[in-house]
Amino acid sequence: MGWILFRCGSMSSRGINILISLSLFACGGGHEEGPTDAAPDALTLPLWDPGLADSSVLGTFRGLERARGIVHVHSPYSWDACDGEPRAADGTLDEACVADLRQALCVTRMDYAALTDHDESMADEPWGPELFLARGDDQPLLDLGGNLVASRLACEDGHHVLLTVGGENELMPIMLDRHPEGDVVMVHEVYNANDADTVATFRSLGGLAWVAHSESKDLALLRDLGLDGMEVYNFHAAIDPDIRPDWLGLDAGGGITAALEFGGTDPDGPEPDLAVLPLLFENLPSLEKWHTLLGEGARMAVTAGTDAHQNALNVAFKDGERGDSYRRMIRWFSNVALVEDRTDPAGIEAAFAAGRLFVAFEILGTPEGFDARLLTTEGDRELGAEVPAAQALSIEAATPHVAGLDPGLPAPTARTRILRVDALGVEEIAAGEGVVTAPAITPGAYLVEVRITPRHLGPYLREIRTDYAEREYVWIYASPLYVR
After folding, report:
1. Closest CA relative to residue 148, chosen from 345, 2, 324
2. Quick one: which of 169, 117, 127, 126 has its CA closest to 150?
3. pLDDT per position as a tens digit, 402-413
4. CA-to-CA distance for 427 and 420, rounded, in angstroms?
5. 452-465: per-residue pLDDT in tens?
6. What is the dihedral sign for C-alpha 16, 22, 26, 27?
7. Cα(167)–Cα(173) distance, rounded to whole angstroms?
8. Residue 167 near residue 118 (C-beta atoms within 8 A)
């Protein structure tokens, strides 16, 4: 699943950068005009925050904190990261690229990062601190047997980010404790395998079995693999001119064209981080496969894949950063785990295994106060819980608000939907603002999602496409609650 973001046949990343640069120049001021009355004087506009608030603002419910993280990110141990040149001729890593990734995780205040490198060259690297990008004051985290299973990345401001190692090939194992057994050839073979036995192998290595790019995966294979989870959104799929027509039924170049409206260096142009807005559409093929599997009785947690490589758009935008910087892409959305301790890697992995997690598209705002629970005769149950129908009572979900919203900005609106999925399909059983409830006495998988119309982003779009702020987007996808 290696990717050069704007792949066109066999075009090199350098050729792609030239193409994008020419496109930016050619586009100039040419764009589809949208409404302009939402933008106040630029001098009064609150400064755009390139980072995110500490994840503590997400809230704590019933003793469970929210751990924010990224799943599906490529370090210089992927052959195609860092503009396709992650290593020097002598084999040493591109330290500038390593530093960019580390700094991005700190600025966005991730609590964890599940690295997912391609087997070339991750599988060639011995399991050790180097594979965890350990530098400076980072702390190795060992299991009871003294084996390295995670690393605590030390940020300059005192924040720490847990790093775990995994891979992305046909399958996407995450949070592994060690490489597969055998010589280097055998290790590569395991990472590239794609069957239920390999899923079991990844679990025996201390990890979980996920799959990326589910839009292109065969439903029958997904069914047979018995995965722990899957992506329901992937940025690469949303923009790639090969994937869009082949797997999403979209025009090939539309994603690039829309994103380029946010390029350039004009100080009066739109906020570059918002370039993802036209690409935050629902990945229907992935969602339909997820719903089908749930309707058949499968347990399937979900994540969104940033798929960041920092390898495709080495062109400076008006904020001085390259278009595809690690910082910019990691800021767009997060995978939030419900844990007792945000600093505990075992607790984060346990939350993933149990399905206690949700996707939050934080470019639309950090969702403060989101909560979802299953009320039963035996007490409250969290996301991922499975209970008998005789015990189930109702689903309750709290609609979040945008954390730290400046009162001078236009107000967004958000609404929560509760869906039930069973063998007959998907049915919305409740929707609204505030606290939304729905009965949960009928067997099925219950989903909670939140949608938002982000009018507060309108001023940052300037005169380019303020209509993007008037659209409704999915803000949160929550993993299911199950009634059997």
Report:
1. 345
2. 127
3. 999 999 999 999
4. 5
5. 999 999 999 997 78
6. positive
7. 6
8. yes
